[in-house]
User: Which sequence fits this backbone?
């Protein structure tokens, strides 16, 4: 239940920002998708920056952790166990 309340709070905050900016909601699909992409990529800025300053491997982090977070868990052929018809 907590995650739903947090999601509602984030949505309310975005609604207030939309109102301040004078943007009507729902935004056109392309604008909404670009905004969502910005959110997903923006979440990765601090972890990547921390690794850069700590001289830790960044490329592996981007390929593994960032890719999974931004793209979601991608399906593989092993996940598909449909029986032939």
Assistant:
């Amino acid at each position: 239940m907590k995650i739903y309340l947090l999601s509602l709070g984030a949505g309310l905050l975005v609604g207030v920002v939309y109102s301040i900016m004078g943007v009507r909601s729902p935004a056109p699909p392309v604008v909404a998708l670009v905004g969502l992409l910005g959110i997903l990529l923006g979440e990765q800025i601090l972890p990547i920056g921390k690794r850069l300053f700590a001289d830790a491997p960044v490329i592996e982090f981007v390929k593994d952790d960032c890719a999974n977070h931004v793209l979601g868990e991608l399906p593989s052929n092993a996940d598909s166990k449909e029986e032939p018809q």
Notes: The mean pLDDT is 77.
